[in-house]
Amino acid sequence: MIFTPSAMMLKLLYTRGSLRNTPEGVAFSIKNRLDTVRITRIEYVELDDVRIGTEQIALDLGNGDVRPASVFNAERAGFTLPVGQSATFHLAAKPLPEGLHTIRVRFAAEPFGELTVEVEDAIAARPESRTRIPRSETDDYSEAAIRARQQFAEEFTGEQFEHLKHYSFDAHTLQGNCEHFTGVAQIPVGLAGPLHVNGEHAQGQFLIPLATTEGTLVASYNRGIQLLNLCGGVKCTVIGDAMQRAPVFVFDDARGARDFGRWVEEAIDQIRPEAESTSRIAKLQYIDTYLAGKFAYLRFNYSTGDAAGQNMVGRATFAACSWILEHYPGAPIRHFYLESNFATDKKASQVNVMRTRGKRVVAEAVIKRDILQQRMRVKPEQLAYHGQVSNVGAFLSGANNNGAHSANGITALFIATGQDVANVSESSAGVLYSEITPEGDLYISITIPSLIVATHGGGTGLATQNEYLRLLGCTGRGTVNKLAEIVAGVVLAGELSLGAAISSSDWVSSHEQYGRNR
Ligand SMILES: CC(C)(COP(=O)([O-])OP(=O)([O-])OC[C@H]1O[C@@H](n2cnc3c(N)ncnc32)[C@H](O)[C@@H]1OP(=O)([O-])[O-])[C@@H](O)C(=O)NCCC(=O)NCCSC(=O)C[C@@](C)(O)CC(=O)[O-]
Ligand SMILES: NC(=O)C1=CN([C@@H]2O[C@H](COP(=O)(O)OP(=O)(O)OC[C@H]3O[C@@H](n4cnc5c(N)ncnc54)[C@H](OP(=O)(O)O)[C@@H]3O)[C@@H](O)[C@H]2O)C=CC1
Q1: Pairing with 397, which of 83, 145, 274, 444 sits 20 to 30 Å away (CA)?
Q2: Measured at the alpha carbon of residue 231, what is the angle toward residues 228 and 233, in degrees to the nearest 5?
Q3: Ligand 2 mean position to 361 CA, how many Å?
Q4: Under a CB-based contact definition with an 8 Å cutoff, are residues 356 and 309 in contact?
Q5: Which of the following is catalytic: 214, 288, 339, 467?
Q6: Model confidence over 449-494: pLDDT tens digits?
Q7: DSSP sequence for 227-282
Q8: Which ligand is nearest to the CA of 299?
Q9: C-alpha dihedral over 168, 170, 176, 177, to 10 degrees?
Q10: Any idea what the Cα angle at residue 15 is, between residues 128 and 63, rounded to 5°?
Q11: Backbone dihedral region of 232: left (phi > 0), alpha (psi from -120 to 50 degrees) or beta?
Q12: Do 209 and 472 touch, CB atoms closer than 8 A?
């Protein structure tokens, strides 16, 4: 199924600030910011309601491919404009005076049919020459482009750089991951484990790669892992899975927003195929509606296969909203934004904790009394009591986690395995619980309600990152829940180790031994 971009969305094609006078007339640029299209015909351009015919229009598609629109139409061959590619319209027209102008472009595109882009842009005095990082239009990942940026950085700062230039992979593999690539930051990786995981997806022993510069961290996780192993391993379970994008629709009043929310609920079976038409993998599960004032916030929830899914759900929700904007029969929609800060991506939030974002995963273990005392120098009662006192601290401080440091293990694993590290913001939320069993042992669990992990897409295919995923046995289809379970197990190991160090008062001394660079 194909979505038709609304007039509001078509404006995104126009490159603001691109309107300019040229020696031959007037020029402006478009850039495909929507979806790959095939442009089959240019009908006309209007500048301030003055129509410019196809014989006065030339299209510059880059790389010296310039075609008069009349020839282009006669050839009927069309051209494909992939996402991210620009085209410049050159018009044989009188130069425009400084100030605001209206531009209307009418063209035909497959698979949409006839479309009109209507925008306003200004002819402005050209900005002064400015410092510009070198960029190659033809191949920005070539050796020459990278060297030019390294040299630029050295000249700009007056410093010489040695290590950031050394890497072992083809820089072209970074396309889709990093613009203006200039070099690498080498993060040391320490191994912990092997961790014994009793998951539904991860079963057996796993070596844990921890990318960190915090001394003591690997030692601490390693210690916690040994403790878990001595007690039979860690039981891990994925109990929820959803990735969100949360658009907002603005109405004239609260009733408009309320009625829209009801309509969305009824129209879900029509909205779903629109969203899912954009991906082989993304599946729209449900839409939550939250109302406030004249605003209707929709929280679209998807399953996204082995990918974290932020790009997938953005694209899918964009298509769904495009359909909604065209088909909603009720009160006029005054504004629409694809994201309303309700997703909530890369931010700690209560809605993530309550409604799940990414994977909701639990790690549990029963730690034997004598093993805890021998290995960690604390009794179960001491750890459980310390947990209660910490709960009050977490409550008072408003933290998103009543445990000690799940962000440490999560960040170190994220860096090693190519996850988007900014997602530690929501992935760091945690609910730690412990109790003494009738046998006098310690039952302990951690729930991570918004763990954003992937084994496909994002940075997971990059050279070292993919090797660390292979170390964990987490490459290939259907491996993302396995990774989620391993991460949860590692987090629980860290809670036990640091919790014990704080309870037994050897936390500071351990950092003095392992973690200082005075
Ligand atoms: C992608 C652009 C910049 C295109 O922007 P554009 O205006 O379509 O592109 P342009 O070709 O006209 O270039 C404009 C300028 O962009 C820069 N630029 C352009 N291309 C390059 C490049 N290859 N390498 C380096 N710089 C580049 C460069 O400064 C350039 O100026 P110039 O130097 O040419 O005079 C724009 O569309 C954009 O900024 N989009 C927003 C993307 C973004 O911020 N994503 C953040 C990730 S989303 C997220 O993580 C969190 C979120 C959103 O989920 C949180 C939430 O839920 O709220
Ligand atoms: N756009 C945004 O707002 C944000 C983007 N990000 C970035 O988004 C990236 C993550 O986006 P994400 O959508 O996960 O990844 P990608 O954008 O890398 O897309 C992954 C694609 O891989 C394809 N695919 C093939 N096999 C599988 C499989 N087994 N499971 C899942 N997908 C598969 C799917 O294609 P198809 O859909 O065509 O079937 C899917 O869309 C990260 O790099 C992150 O930094 C982060 C935050 C916000």
Answers
A1: 444
A2: 55
A3: 21
A4: no
A5: 214
A6: 999 999 999 999 999 999 999 999 999 999 999 999 999 999 999 9
A7: HHHHTT-EEEEEEEEEEEE--EEE-SSHHHHHHHHHHHHHTHHHHHHHHHTT-SS-
A8: 1
A9: 10
A10: 85
A11: left
A12: yes
Cis peptide before 344 (omega within 30 of 0): yes
Bridge partners, 263 (sequence order): none
198, pLDDT greater than 90 = yes
pLDDT range class, residue 1, cuts 50, 70, 90: very low
Residue-level pLDDT at 356 = 98
Question: Hey, where are the domains in the chain?
Answer: 7-123, 131-182, 189-241+358-515, 247-337
Can 196 be counted among the known catalytic residues?
no
Give residue for tokens 């190519």.
418
Q: Kindly tell me the sign of the dihedral angle through the C-alpha atoms of 345, 411, 503, 192.
A: positive
Distances (CA, A) of 392 to 387, 398, 399, 402: 9, 10, 11, 9
Q: Are 275 and 247 in contact (CB under 8 A)?
A: no
Tokens found for residue 379: 């009794």
Q: Which residues line ligand 1 (CB under 6 A)?
A: 15, 31, 132, 135, 179-180, 310, 339, 341, 343, 345-346
- What separation in Å is there between the alpha carbon of 179 and the centre of ligand 1? 10
pTM: predicted TM-score of the whole model, two decimal places? 0.85
Calculate the average pLDDT of the chain.
Answer: 93
Helix H or strand E segment including 196:
strand 189-199
Same fold, 189-241+358-515 and 247-337: no
Is 511 among the residues known to form the active site?
yes
Q: Which amino acid is at 446?
A: I
Q: Which residues contact ligand 2 via a Cβ below 6 A?
A: 279-282, 304-312, 314, 345, 420, 454, 456-459, 477
| pLDDT value, residue 167 | 98
Q: Left, alpha or beta for 67 (phi > 0: left; psi -120 to 50: alpha)?
A: beta
Largest CA distance in the chain: 90
Helix (H, G, I), strand (E, B) or coil at 420: coil
Return the bridge partners of 210, or none. 190
In the CATH hierarchy, which fold is given to the domain comprising 189-241+358-515? 3.90.770
Protein fold of 247-337: Alpha-Beta Plaits (3.30.70)
- Cβ-in-10-Å burial (0-12, 13-18, 19+) of 3 comes to buried
Task: Find where tokens 């531009």 sit.
Answer: 103
| Residue 452: C-alpha distances to residues 112, 245, 318, 423, 480 (Å) | 35, 14, 21, 6, 10
**Residues whose CB falls within 8 Å of the CB of residue 274, separated by 6 or more in sequence, listed in order:** 1, 3, 319, 320, 322, 323
In angstroms, what is the span from residue 373 Cα to ligand 2's centroid?
45
Comparing CA positions, the residue from 416, 248, 444, 450 lying closest to residue 348 is 450
Q: What digits encode the pLDDT tens for the residues 268-300?
A: 999 999 999 999 999 999 999 999 999 999 999
What CATH number has the domain spanning 7-123? Answer: 2.60.40
Give the pLDDT confidence score for residue 65 in this predicted structure: 84
